[in-house]
Amino acid sequence: MKHDYTDVECCSETCIHQDLVKIVNDTMPDETELYDLAELFKVFGDSTRIRILFVLFEAEVCVCDLAETLHMTQSAISHQLRILKQNKLVKSRREGKSIFYSLADDHVRSIIAQGREHIEED
After folding, report:
1. FRET label pair with 98: which of 22, 26, 34, 105, CA 20 to 30 Å apart?
2. From CA 17, how far away is CA 82, in angstroms rounded?
3. What residues are paired with 92 via a beta bridge?
4. What average pLDDT score do residues 65-70 get?
5. What is the tens place of the pLDDT at every residue in 18-63?
6. In what order do the strands lie in the sheet with 90-95?
7. CATH class label, 30-120
8. What span, in angstroms and rounded, lies between the C-alpha atoms of 45 and 91?
């Protein structure tokens, strides 16, 4: 895929602003934190996982309910739930023979809400 960089403006000469570079370097999180953050955002890069989260915005549900609602197999749903749970975006609880899933906390709702606001901007 060829990229078109004609709309990206660049400086006409090199001039490093050391004061700004120092501020950025002093406040930049360490590589581990940046990696972990990038990994978290990758989880949101799958539309099936986003659909699951939207269901969980409304109710605590079991895998059977999710599979029915999203027209998918329980196996496919379980795979995605495992990823969401590993990344602490959902939590589960057992009730008899059923396992119910819910959002881990309100941060999940905030992340999705801010993403929606961003894509809806003019």
Report:
1. 105
2. 46
3. 101
4. 97
5. 999 999 999 999 999 999 999 999 999 999 999 999 999 999 999 9
6. 61-62, 98-103, 90-95
7. mainly alpha
8. 20
Phi and psi at 95, nearest 5°, equal: -135, 100
Strand ranges in 1-122 using DSSP code E only, listed in sequence order: 61-62, 90-95, 98-103
| Local structure of 107: helix, strand or coil | helix
- Contact between 66 and 106 (Cβ < 8 Å): no
Q: What totals of helices (H) and strands (E) does the chain contain, helices first?
A: 6, 3
For residues 52 and 77, the answer to whether their CB atoms sit within 8 Å is yes
* Strands 61-62 and 98-103, bridge-based pairing: antiparallel
Classify 58 in phi/psi space as left (phi over 0), alpha (psi -120 to 50) or beta: alpha
* Cross-strand pairs, 88: none
Pairwise CA distance, residues 62 & 52, whole Å? 11
Torsions phi, psi of 44, nearest 5? -80, -5
